[in-house]
C-alpha cells in the first residue's frame, strides 16, 4: 500500500504547487490575463486570472526534477513531459480566447407571461443570453411584435477553435505518448499489440475532452482529478508497483495544491493550459501504469458528462444549457452544491471500484 514516503511526496507536491500557483496568479494579474465568462450567471467571476494551469505544470515539473531517477521515476518523467506538451497546446487555445468574436445580448422577460426564445422558456423576471441563431431570430420577432424582452447586457464572446480543430490538436498531443515506444501492449493482462495505439489515442483525447468540459466551476475539475488520481495511485501501487503509482500521487498533489486558490470562490482558473495538461497526464499515467480500466471508471463523472453533451449535440436529448453542471445550475442548484455533488459521486465511484478490484 501507499507508504510514508508517498504521503511525504504528496504533501510536498501540494506545497510546491500552491506556492507556484500564487506566483503565477500574481504574474497573470500584472499581465492582465483574466477570464471573461460567457455564462451570464457567472459574470461576477469576470476578472479572475486564467491560464493558472502553469502553476500545476511548474509544480509537477519541479517534483519530477527533485525526484529524478530514471529507473524509479521513468513513468513520472514521461507523464510530466506529456503534461508540459499538452499544456503548451492548451495555452495557445487560451490565448485565442482573448480575441472577441461577437457580443451576445442578455435579456430579461419583463412581461407577465412566459416567453419562448430559442430552446428556453423565460418566466417573468428571468434572464437569458441570446446565443443560438434561432434565439437571435426569436428575439428580433418578439421585440418587434410584443416588446416583452428588455436588453440588460451585452457579453463579449471569445474566439474559439472549432471542434474539429480541437480534435486535431488533441490528436497531435496524444501522438506524443506513442512516439517514444514506452507504451505497453496489453491492458489488464489482455495482449492488444498494435491495437494499443488507437486505444491510447482515443483514451487520451477522451480524457482531455472530459477534463476540459468539466472545468466550468470553481475547483470542479481539480477536485475530481485529485480524487480519481488518489484512487488510481492506490490501485497502481498494488497491481503494478510504486513506479506506476508515483505519477498519480504527483498529479493528485498538484491538483490539491492548485485548489488552495481555485476552490470556491476561485482566485484563479486553470484554463485550457491546465485542463489539457491534467487530462493528458492522468491518462498517460493510466496507460503507462497498466491501470487504464480502473482509471477510466474513476473518471466516470466527467466521462458521463461528455456523453450527455454529445447526446445533446446530436439532438437525441435536449438540455436548456450544456454541459450538465450548467443545466443543474440553471434549474436552481447552487455552484457549491454541484461541486460537492460531483466530488462526492467521484469519491463513491472510486471507493466502489477499489472494492470491486480487490484493492480494499
UniProtKB/TrEMBL annotation:
Predominant cellular place of this UniProt entry's protein: membrane
An annotated GO BP: cell wall macromolecule biosynthetic process
Topological relation to the membrane, as annotated: Multi-pass membrane protein
InterPro entries: Glycosyl_transferase_4, PNAcMuramoyl-5peptid_Trfase_CS
A family per Pfam: Glycos_transf_4
Any GO CC annotation of this UniProt entry: plasma membrane
A GO MF term: phosphotransferase activity, for other substituted phosphate groups
Regions crossing the membrane: 6-24, 50-68, 74-92, 189-208, 220-238, 244-264, 285-311, 338-359
Matching PANTHER family: PHOSPHO-N-ACETYLMURAMOYL-PENTAPEPTIDE-TRANSFERASE, UNDECAPRENYL-PHOSPHATE ALPHA-N-ACETYLGLUCOSAMINYL 1-PHOSPHATE TRANSFERASE
Keyword field: Cell membrane, Membrane, Transferase, Transmembrane, Transmembrane helix
Superkingdom of origin organism: Archaea
Record's protein name: Predicted UDP-N-acetylmuramyl pentapeptide phosphotransferase
Amino acid at each position: 500500500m501507499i507508504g510514508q514516503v508517498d504521503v511525504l511526496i504528496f504533501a510536498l507536491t501540494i506545497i510546491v504547487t500552491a506556492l507556484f500557483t500564487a506566483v503565477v496568479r500574481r504574474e497573470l494579474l500584472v499581465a492582465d490575463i483574466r477570464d471573461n465568462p460567457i455564462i451570464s450567471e457567472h459574470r461576477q467571476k469576470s476578472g479572475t486570472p486564467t491560464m493558472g494551469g502553469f502553476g500545476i505544470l511548474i509544480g509537477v515539473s519541479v517534483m519530477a526534477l527533485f525526484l529524478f531517477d530514471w529507473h524509479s521515476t521513468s513513468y513520472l518523467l514521461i507523464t510530466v513531459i506529456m503534461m508540459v506538451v499538452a499544456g503548451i497546446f492548451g495555452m495557445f487555445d487560451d490565448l485565442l480566447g482573448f480575441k472577441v468574436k461577437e457580443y451576445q445580448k442578455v435579456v430579461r422577460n419583463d412581461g407577465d407571461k412566459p416567453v419562448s426564445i430559442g430552446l428556453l422558456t423565460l418566466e417573468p423576471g428571468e434572464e437569458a443570453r441570446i446565443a443560438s441563431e434561432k434565439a437571435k431570430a426569436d428575439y428580433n420577432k418578439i421585440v418587434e411584435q410584443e416588446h416583452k424582452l428588455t436588453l440588460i447586457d451585452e457579453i463579449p464572446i471569445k474566439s474559439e477553435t472549432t471542434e474539429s480543430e480541437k480534435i486535431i490538436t488533441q490528436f497531435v498531443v496524444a501522438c506524443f505518448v506513442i512516439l517514444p515506444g514506452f507504451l505497453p501492449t496489453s491492458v489488464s493482462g489482455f495482449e492488444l499489440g498494435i491495437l494499443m495505439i488507437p486505444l491510447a489515442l482515443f483514451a487520451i483525447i477522451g480524457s482531455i475532452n472530459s477534463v476540459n468540459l468539466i472545468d466550468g466551476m470553481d475547483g470542479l475539475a481539480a477536485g475530481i482529478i485529485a480524487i480519481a488520481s488518489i484512487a488510481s495511485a492506490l490501485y497502481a501501487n498494488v497491481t503494478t508497483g510504486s513506479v506506476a503509482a508515483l505519477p498519480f500521487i504527483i498529479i493528485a498533489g498538484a491538483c490539491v495544491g492548485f485548489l488552495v486558490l481555485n476552490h470556491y470562490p476561485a482566485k484563479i482558473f486553470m484554463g485550457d493550459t491546465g485542463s489539457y495538461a491534467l487530462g493528458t497526464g492522468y491518462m498517460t499515467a493510466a496507460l503507462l501504469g497498466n491501470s487504464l480500466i480502473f482509471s477510466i471508471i474513476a473518471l466516470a463523472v466527467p466521462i458521463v458528462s461528455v456523453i450527455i453533451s454529445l447526446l445533446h449535440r446530436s439532438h437525441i436529448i435536449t438540455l436548456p444549457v450544456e454541459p450538465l453542471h450548467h443545466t443543474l445550475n440553471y434549474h436552481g442548484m447552487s455552484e457549491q452544491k454541484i461541486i460537492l455533488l460531483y466530488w462526492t459521486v467521484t469519491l463513491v465511484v472510486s471507493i466502489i471500484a477499489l472494492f470491486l478490484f480487490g484493492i480494499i
